[in-house]
Structures are given as structure tokens and as C-alpha cells.
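Supplementary material to the annual report.
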Amino acid sequence: AQTVTQSQPEMSVQEAETVTLSCTYDTSESDYYLFWYKQPPSRQMILVIRQEAYKQQNATENRFSVNFQKAAKSFSLKISDSQLGDAAMYFCAPGATGRRALTFGSGTRLQVQP
Amino acid sequence: EAGVAQSPRYKIIEKRQSVAFWCNPISGHATLYWYQQILGQGPKLLIQFQNNGVVDDSQLPKDRFSAERLKGVDSTLKIQPAKLEDSAVYLCASSTRQEYNEQFFGPGTRLTVL
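Predicted assembly:
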């Protein structure tokens, strides 16, 4: 079983600035992955970044990076050089291996101010 | 590569009526998921299929919800009879056999029950 906590319902950032979205989770799985998904208003959910729990190195995808602290069960998302198109709901989701379903947090709504 | 298709995009019904949603996953994706996303919350799994077999339906309200995936390709989710609390976005997702289980989401069907 997995639980996810996203403690920031809303965040705001100025364009070109950096913002960090927090996520903590709990899982009974020994082998798992962690995902951040983005859901723009009225548009479909897309994957932002993936982290393998067995890797110590933090994942990076262009302007997006994570700070993965396995012992603390923390998985935060950093967005650098924020752009207007980054405005969306962001969901943290741990997932066990073996094609099992994801468990989503309640989401953080990110606003980007011009 | 075509994405996950869902129809209809929007549906408004009266309580106690029936409704059906359709999903066509990405070609070749063996695993299909139906999630329910209530306004302000993260998606919650309703049912997971592997080919045409059910893997997990533990959170599906079976007294009113049913789903099938004939021939292991497209899938239909039905609600009969609908209740007010069924108002939500119904998301379909699919994934490949990849270990890390990246899920690709459709645009969703927004259901309003009056």
C-alpha cells in the first residue's frame, strides 16, 4: 500500500524564477518508481519526470529536476527558469514495479506570474 | 504514435440514469487503467486490465460500476445507476511492458450528475 502527501495545495512563481514542489510518500514496496505528472487546465496528464528508487542520483529532464531522499521518503520537484506554460496541477505518484497502478497525491496547483 | 483516445469528452446526466465511457489505448499497450478524478483531488484507480483480464478492481464500486475490455484492446466503463457523487473526470491510461510502468493518459471524460 502507498500513501502520498503533497502539502502545498497552491504555489506561485515569477516567470524565469525557480520553484520547488514538495512530496512525501510511504510505501511497503521494496522496489518502486516515483513520478511527477503535470495536468494543464482542461488538458491531459503528461509525465514530467521519473525516478528509480534504487538510484541515488537525482533525475533531471531539462528544466525539471528532483531531490529524492529515500530514507526520508521525500521526492520534491524543482522547476528552473519557470515559463508560463508550466502553469498546471502537478501530481506526485509512486508506483510499484510490475505495471501496477499509480497512487496519486492531491496535487499542487502552480501559477506562473508574468 | 496516436495517444489514448476517450469519448465522450463531456457528459451530463440525471441521477439514476446510466452512462458509458469508451477508451482506446495506445496500440500495443497491454495494460489499461481507469481512474476517477474528483474535482480538487488526484486520480484514484477504479480498475486495471492486463490484456482482457482484470488485475485490480478492489476500488471499483461493483454495485453500480462495471468495466470490460473485450479482445484486449479498447475498453468500456459503465455506471448504472449514477449518483451525484459520481460527478468526476474519468481518466483512461495505458502502459507497455516496461519495468517502470510509465502511464499515458487520455484527455478524460468529464461527467456531471444532476
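The first strand of chain A starts at residue 2 and ends at 5.
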